[in-house]
Design goal:
alpha/beta; four-stranded mixed β-sheet
Length: 196
């Protein structure tokens, strides 16, 4: 199984200042073995939906679509990546920055690429030249940045769209346009680079 080595790698990055929080529907018992920098938060899909409604006022009722042995949410949860600072506020408390990534990303020494100086120079970092990247982006943990997604026109309609696809690509396309515009207007500081 790939998850134990993945969690161990995340835990090892803790010595360089990185903490990880995973929201899992069915956490495996081996995950809770003394990690200091990896926190597993049990959360089912309906609990996520309730939290989205409670924190940002978007009502969704997601469901799993089954195809053989594989199941995935009808509405891709990555659409909500830029909203995590608002949705998961209580888990972000105490941190200067928060970010999102995907399970298929394995990281080396992030501190050598994402330095304190780099983070201090920006409000949002995207791991894609001049773009927000769903695979890895970081946001300054302040109210203005945590709620920046709400400045996208029709953000509620986009986030409540019940379709089975990611037709809006809110986490990358929509937010990239918004962030570029806000950066060009001098309202936020945005930095990007390709290091993966």
């Amino acid at each position: 199984d790939w998850m134990p080595p993945y969690m161990e790698r995340c835990e090892a990055l803790g010595q360089y200042g990185w903490d990880w929080k995973f929201f899992l529907a069915q956490p495996e018992p081996w995950i809770h073995q003394g990690y200091r920098h990896v926190e597993i938060i049990p959360m089912r899909l309906n609990q996520f939906d309730d939290l989205v409604e409670e924190t940002i006022g978007v009502r969704i009722r997601n469901e799993l679509i089954h195809s053989g042995p594989v199941a995935w949410p009808r509405k891709l949860l990555s659409c909500y990546y830029p909203c995590h600072g608002a949705i998961f506020k209580r888990w972000c408390n105490g941190y200067d920055y928060w970010g999102h990534t995907n399970w298929d990303m394995v990281f080396g020494r992030l501190d050598q690429w994402i330095t304190d100086d780099l983070l201090l120079s920006c409000d949002i970092f995207g791991n894609d030249p001049d773009a927000i990247n769903g695979c890895f982006s970081m946001y300054k943990n302040v109210d203005r940045i945590n709620h920046l997604f709400m400045e996208y026109p029709d953000w509620k309609r986009v986030l409540s769209y019940p379709g089975p696809d990611n037709m809006f690509v809110f986490d990358e396309a929509c937010m990239t346009h918004l962030v570029r515009d806000k950066h060009a207007a001098g309202e936020i500081r945005f930095a990007s680079d390709w290091f993966m």
